Amino acid sequence: MTRYRMLAIDLDDTLLNSRLQISPRTKEAIRRARDAGVHVTLATGRMYRSALPYARELELNLPLITYQGALIKEVATEEVLLHRPLPLELAREAVALASSQGHHVNVYLDDNLYVGKLTPEAEKYRKISGVPIYPVGDLVKLLDKRGVAPTKVLVVGEETAMDELGEQMLDRFGKTLHICKSKPHFLELSHPEATKGHALDTLARRWDLTRDQVIAVGDSYNDLEMIEYAGLGVVMGNACPDIKAKADYITQSNEQDGVAEVIAKFIFED
């Protein structure tokens, strides 16, 4: 049996194929790893409620890393093990800046998704995430009224526009928020310590594991911290070249069951 005792897997473009499904081969590989005593969890930018159906499909009863690491929540008991929301005042400023430029903005409060209005971007996001969306008009007013720090803020737009906005956000909030792109058209803003790497470390310590015993599998910029943290950082074959450059190992694509390959090669040494 291999030394690896924990496996953290990103969802979109990693575990899931283009139809947002987990292949039978990958399901069987995860079941085999779980039955062998490996702690298998999901590490995703998605909301907890959006990741939960996939965890149940895989019969995972461990804590899930969600919202890029801002929320770790136990599946079996729904206990919140970690929650690192954005500071409320910084969230207000960031939402106001993105909204003033006409970008679509998602605000996440209490595992619910709020938007200003139902845009095409909102409808596309709803289909991907499988969660309801609540249009509330002015998102800054929502934050003021609720007085609760959001778990995450996501801005959706054309790739070049998100690159430009990302630079503005880094100039303004680079020392106080974690800012990254999870997809070319998704700009994510979260607590500075709300990363998949920090969350992975939290769970590894919970299970008395060292980072050398951890495998992390991902495909995008928001996976870099956990790829760099893990003893074995794996990048999918469908990732872009600069993400692949950070990998200890490059597996097959999400359409070719890359996660199953990793489990066979490194956990069971098949």
From TrEMBL:
CDD domains hit by this protein: HAD_Pase (cd07516)
Keyword Transmembrane in record: no
GO cellular component: a single term: cytosol
Keyword terms, alphabetized: Hydrolase
GO molecular-function terms, A-Z: magnesium ion binding; phosphatase activity
Pfam family, one: Hydrolase_3
Protein's UniProt name: Cof-like hydrolase
Provenance organism: Desulforamulus ruminis (strain ATCC 23193 / DSM 2154 / NCIMB 8452 / DL)
Organism lineage: Bacteria, Bacillati, Bacillota, Clostridia, Eubacteriales
